[in-house]
Records
---
Amino acid sequence: MGLTAKRVRDAKPSGKTRIEWDDDVKGLGLRITPGGAKAFVFNYRMDNVSRRMTLGRTSELSLADARSRAMAAKQAVRVGQDPLEMLRIRKSLPTVSEALDRFQSDYMVKRAALGRLSDKTSREYNRQIERNLRPALGRKRVQEVTQKDVERMLAPLAPIIANRVLALASKFFRCCEDWELRPQNSNPARGIEKAVEEPRDRTLSADELGALGRALSELDENEAAILAIRLAALTGLRIGEVRSMRWEDINLQSGQVVLPKTKTGRRVHTLPAAAVNLLADTKQLSAWVIPGRDIDKPLDLRWIRRVFERTCRAAGIEGARLHDLRRTVMTQAASMGVGAHLLRDMLGHKTTAMADRYIRNAGQPLTELRERVGAGMAAILSNGELQTNGGDSQHDISKERRRSVGRTTKSRGAGIPNRSKD
């Protein structure tokens, strides 16, 4: 009689270990020890030697799954592969957690030594590894991770975080391929579509900026943090760039600051006169322009954020973040008619993609342009004439078309062949 789910469940121990065999899959059996431990086993012959492998405990493996594993093992034997040797090799492969340790101690350290990985990015990688990759995938063997495993890890995350974790996972599995822990071109993060991120376009109005300035003057807060906020508002620099400024990199006479490490590498930034005057009035208490409690280090970013939040509350400003100061400066520059390439250089970006976004959100000038175009289109719809600036007749499209047709006719009469008759 073959094995059934009821027979597996009701099997009782005896005085010695015994095996009850299955009639449906030859070689599959249920092993029961005197202590009552039950497990599925599979017997096979390799090179005329009888071998036995344990498939799994009955508490962890159903009879159907046991039969499926036994069938897979039988197929391996038919093609000359030893299931026990394959299992040994599989168990010798590293887990994702072990490979992540190598990623942190090898890949990240080497990239940092080459100047290709900033301290901030390194901290972010470590945070994502410990919060997301290791808990979700750590126990799996590197070769066994599938695209569905990665998708399940990303499912509960917010869009921005999910995209960052996806990028890190893709980088990690590319390293695993380089280390020959996975076959080439088997990256399970490849092909997963990124989550849609809602772009943040919050800027501060003139009234909000005025209220922020008054609050910064009136509040009794950390002076270094207040200086950082003012410099960010005046220059449009990222708060991390402001925080990492050193006095030795600033030339007050030329109004320039050298930023050794930015997203696009070393950059020389010209400071506006207001920022130069602010720096000239600042006491140099440390090598850092924005010194922390430990004068050998810059002020912690969390302190600057806290001061900014308290200042916004005092000024009655809601929903603002530190980076919105940079966005406000760039939007103001775009509204002054600054071109995309010049704005790109002001932003410190490699491409004009972000500059184009600021130009599209330029505010009042763009609104005025849309109003003029809309008024002109309304005039065409009403009387067939395009009027701008109070109805200037020089912009009459229909008249211009008639003049163009007349010029074309005269040209043809002067010896230019009529191609339509050829």
---
Amino acid sequence: SNFTRINTNQAKLLGLNTPEEAIGKSDFDFFSHAQIAFNDEQEIIKTGIPLIDKIEQIKNSLNESRWVSTSKIPIYNNQGEIIGIIGVTKDITETIINNQQLQEAKRRAEEAEKLKSAFIANMSHEIRSPMNAIIGFSDLLIKRDLDETSKKYLEYIISSGDSLLNLIDDIINISKIESNQLKISLTNVNLNELFKEINTFAETRRDQLNKQNIKISLNSNETSQNLIIKTDGFRIKQITNNLITNALKFTEVGEISIDYKIENNYLNFSVKDTGLGIPKKDINLIFQRFGQVGETISLNRNGTGLGLNITKNIIELLNGYIFVESELNIGSIFKVKIPIEICS
């Protein structure tokens, strides 16, 4: 295992001025890991099996730690006898250090995600609890025999509290989406009961917004009656509730209709309104985070531009799709298609 020829880079690694100074010497003259290298070479001579890309940590002539990738193959004479070894060593120190830094960065990122998730879960509870108390007790007070000024003040409290609670929910949902903490839970759901609850929400929300002149209708396909399906009922309600709330914001007169049916193992449902409508050029904008159609921002002072973005993300988590058709001053229809499993 004596050197017969080396290049200039190898000479630098050994701390030599010229390659010729290495001739007749071996790894034992330079490296603490020489015995390991010698054993590898003897095994190659014995078996003829090359050594390819062995990763090693060595010390150079300046006693600096370096990572190298070493390959060694046998050299044969004309009679097919192994008479030596040729080796190629690549310095991969920077690659190893970069990988170590990436692993450390990944570890820190995962730790940060865990802290973020814990923070979201804690804040979700801690913020909602007092807000629910403020809105709940204000709602009880407003039903008492109060003068008009007091009732007006309480209406402001309830309205502002409701807007703040919706904003908190949006921020928490966005944070969960960003940190992949928004979970899907598939369970057996009674389709009719699910959409009855959605209809009740729509009527309650309409009354909260003092838009009793708007008609709410629920329509189903006969083939969808009394079906049990496997889906995430909570997320379906979250999607429809967001779409209904959005429709109510931009509808002053007319009707909001909710339709649903099962077709080819898909739950198809829609929310249609007779509201302001959306310019065709802005259809994609409304699904972007903080995306609001310019003409409607002044009408939607309580909006954050997060609702439809959250809705689209939830639909995609359910492997579904959302489509929009709209005409200015005529209305909009949001159609959703979610794959489901029919249980009975």
---
Amino acid sequence: MKPFKIFFCLSFAFLLTCAGLLMPGGTLLADEYTVGPDDVLKITVYDHPDMETRVRVDGNGTILMPLIGHVNVAGRSIAQVSDKLASLLGDGYLVNPQVNVFIEGYGSKKAVILGMVNKPGLYELSGQTTLLELISKAGGLASDSGATATIKRLKSGGKSEIITVDMRALMESGDMSQNVAINHKDNVYVAKAGMCFVTGEVKKPDAYKIDEDTTVIKAVTLAAGFTGKAAKSKIRIIRIIKGTKNILKDVELDTPVRPDDVIVVPESFF
């Protein structure tokens, strides 16, 4: 296995472990779960056992509560539902009610993940689910996954929002602010990485994933380094620019590499 792939796999495993340890429910620095249709809620009111109830959120996002009737709870966090119920019960019914809400059953919420994952498709969200957890459900990232993921999310009124995730910051730097919560009906797309091909006098000629920081020497390092016969001062890059093949000769080792470049390390005859 190539060194960068080993690092990538270890990073992913480490982050998933962190996601299971640092916060309840296997999530890490994600927004609170929002209530939706078919969720089952257990609602209790302190010092009022007769008010305890279990309700299922209907297709319109509402529940039926004693005293106050139908209440719309869809799209709210558990804390927001508790506050709303307390406010309604305190408006002429109870004095300073303390309401607790628990989720006893999750409704059928799903999200789509496509692109550079091993098992793209439609997945059910079992409660609060983060991007890393959805990627895990999809069999992990593919070896040619890129530096970004995009999440298309429907907002109220039918409008959509695009969220861009920096996968490098998440996977390599452990920036958990990028580990966003996945909502019902989200569409996630993991981009494909730029690739270059390293050939000639390197130990492991092959195609390698690159990013905007990749230079010729970094690409050669991914290919396990030069052989003893490499002409290091005669390296060429074959680059397609607007459909035309261009050959860059005698490039420096710190020359930036672009996606689809072919790096040719010739043999030294001296």
